[in-house]
Amino acid sequence: MVERLVFAILCHWRSGSSVLTKLLHACGMHLGNEATGWDDAWMVGPCEHNVFNSAGNGLYNFNDDSGLPAVIKTLLAYRTEAQRNDWDAYGVKFTHALQDKCFARMHPLFVKFWPDAHYVVSVRHPAGIVASLKGTEITTDKIVESWMSAVPATKDLAKAGATIVVYPDMLTVPKARKVVSKLGLTWTAAASKLMEDSAGKIKGSVLSSLTMAMFDRNYPEAGKAFKELVKLS
């Protein structure tokens, strides 16, 4: 049986998962094809399959699990296409998968239908997520509540061997190379170009120590949890 690298990239929203997924793709991870429902024309930007995006949104926002059968069908399609096309590595990104009400119903599907998947979790200080959503209707309290609900699943996955990537710190070139190597992929010229093109955005996402300290003072549990997640990376 051919050994393949299978990645489930899980994250909270606004946590650098798009650039992380693009990086792994640039290093040899297939994102899918027409038979898996993947469409470069409108999925390659966020780097998330619409089936996973829709199912996650349904679970998180409406406690609606009607999208799960499509998730199962898509996971199976990826396995079939990987064998048919001899993909050495493939993976999907899933934004709403870590919050407690999502993880409880989503993770068992990955365990059953992608038992050989390696989990890659992108985490970001909640202050960075708040800053990225400035000017929207989403309140800081709502963001922190959502972020905190993803912490237990992140810790459980880390203890089970998941790779934790801290955004934006881990997406500087030297650290990104280490992540790619750890995952068994090979750094490429396309990866270097992606990092070069993304450098401004990544640098702009870096928070000052003062900003994080002030946030942690107002939300001490979140600040403590983030420090714990960093130690797991």
From TrEMBL:
Keyword terms, alphabetized: Transferase
GO molecular function list: transferase activity
InterPro entries per the UniProt record, alphabetical: P-loop_NTPase (IPR027417)
Name the UniProt record assigns to this protein: Putative sulfotransferase domain contining protein
